[in-house]
Amino acid sequence: MAGVIPPHVTVVHDLDAETEARLSLVPAAIQPFRLHLGRAIRLDERPLKGVALAVNDYEDGLARLCNALGTRKPSLPHVTLLNPRNVRDDEQAERSWRALRDVSFGDEFRVDTVAVVEEGGDVWREVGRLALGR
Q1: Within 10 Å of residue 78's Cβ, how many Cβ atoms?
Q2: pLDDT by residue (tens digit) across 79-120?
Q3: What CA–CA distance (Å, rounded) separates 100 from 87?
């Protein structure tokens, strides 16, 4: 999936009509902000588990973006390393967790663009891009 889906932080899974209408307000309402990559975490989606990197929103930029969209901030912002949908069995999940559990980044990245992506089966297609602070 990594070759199909670039690294990202999901803000909204499914756009309803009201949230989609608010997209045009985002560029002027939200200034670029920084997010920080943190420790490896376990995505506990039974029956199988995935692995991700925690994303820390120290500047509350992600929270402001969600507020502008009228949505709630993701309860666990993250960048997926191993998607639970792609885990074959518990053994693979455990092996992956053991290999990645001590991974920790202190990197930060600037969010100056929001991509609107549409999922169609196993294909993700960008259908829009919003430049923040404009």
Answers
A1: 19
A2: 888 888 788 888 998 999 999 999 998 899 999 999 998 887
A3: 15
DSSP per position, 104-129: B---EEEE-EEEEEEEETTEEEEEEE
pLDDT tens-digit series, residues 46-62: 666 889 999 999 999 99
Across the beta sheet with 33-45, the strand order is 78-82, 48-56, 33-45, 108-111
Question: Any idea what DSSP says for residue 99?
Answer: H
b/e per residue 101-129 (b: at least 16 CB within 10 A): eeeeeeeeeebeebebeeeeeeebeeeee
Contact call for residues 79 and 7 (beta carbons, < 8 A): yes
pTM for this model (two decimals): 0.82
